[in-house]
Amino acid sequence: MSLEPGLYVAATPIGNLKDITLRVLEALQGADVILCEDTRVTAKLLGGHGIKAVLRPYHDHNAAQMRPEVLERLQDGARIVLVSDAGTPLISDPGYKLVRAVRDAGLPVFTLPGPSAMVAALSIAGAPTDRFLFAGFLPPKSGARQSALRELVTIDATLVFYESGPRLAASLADMAAVLGDRRAAVARELTKLHEEVVEGGLAELAARYADTPPKGEIVVVVHPPEVAAPAAAD
Ligand code: SAM
Q: Could you give the angle at the alpha carbon of 173 between the alpha carbons of 171 and 174, nearest 5°?
C-alpha cells in the first residue's frame, strides 16, 4: 500500500501488542522514517509484527533540534510516522509542537487512532462519561499537587489522572483532602495480564494503597462532585 506523503500520528498498544490497527501496521510498514520516544521500545513492537523500518528518536530532549529536519523531509514529500512508547502520541507524551509546526507549514497531518490509557480507563471505570476532564499527571510534590487539585474542585465532570504506583497513595490522599471523599476507580495494568479496576471512596483507596504501593501503570478516575439532592416537596 502506498502512503500519501505527510505526518502520521499513530496510536500503539498500551500493553497488549495485538491492540494495533491495520492502518497503523500499514503506516509503520510504509514509512520513510518512524519518530519514536525510545527506539528499543518501538523496535520491540515492530519486531512483534515482523516490520523492519528506519527509527529516529523524537523526545523532549531532542525535539527542538529534530523539528526543522522533520519539516524539511516532509516538504520533500516524506511519509513520517510519529509514535510514542505506548498509546496515543501527544496525550501526556511528546508531539504537540511538531504537529503545530507541520500544520503551520501547511503540510498534511493524518491521525491513525487507537489505544489511549485515558479512554481505556474511562470505558470500564463505571464513572459518568458524558463530561470528563483529563488532567494528566499531577505534580509530584504534595503542595503543588494540592494547588493543582484546587483548580479542579468546582468542575462538574469526571476527572481522569495518570499516576505512578509509588505516588498513588499520597496522590489519592491529596485528592480526598481537596476534592472531598468522592467515589473513584484505580485502573491498573490495562490490557495486560494483571489488569484490574479497584473502586472505592478516595480516602478508602488512599488507605488501601498506603502500605502496599501497587506495581505497574495506573489511571485514576474520580467521579464528579455529588449534586445535592433537591429538597423534598411538601
Ligand atoms: N500517550 C499515552 C496514552 O495515550 O495513554 C500515555 C503516556 S503517559 C507518559 C504514561 C501513563 O499512562 C502511565 O504512567 C499511566 O498512568 C498511563 N498508562 C499507560 N499504559 C497504561 C496501562 N496499560 N494501564 C494503566 N495506565 C496506563
A: 65
Ligand 1 close to Cβ of residue 91 (< 6 A) = yes
Nearest residue (by CA) to ligand 1, atom 11, is: 162
Ligand 1 mutation pick, 9, 12, 14, 137, max ligand atoms within 8 A of CB? 14
Hey, is 34 helix, strand or coil? strand
Express each pLDDT in 196-207 by its tens digit: 999 999 999 999
Strand 183-188 to 196-201 pairing? antiparallel
User: Is 33 within 8 Å of 73 (Cβ atoms)?
Assistant: yes
Measured in Å, residue 46 CA sits from the centre of ligand 1 at 19
Residue 118 pLDDT greater than 60, yes or no: yes
- From first CA to last CA, the distance across the chain in angstroms is 70
Is 49 a residue whose pLDDT tops 90? yes
Which has the closest alpha carbon to 23: 34, 9, 35, 38?
A: 9
- 218 burial (CB, 10 Å; 0-12 / 13-18 / 19+) is buried
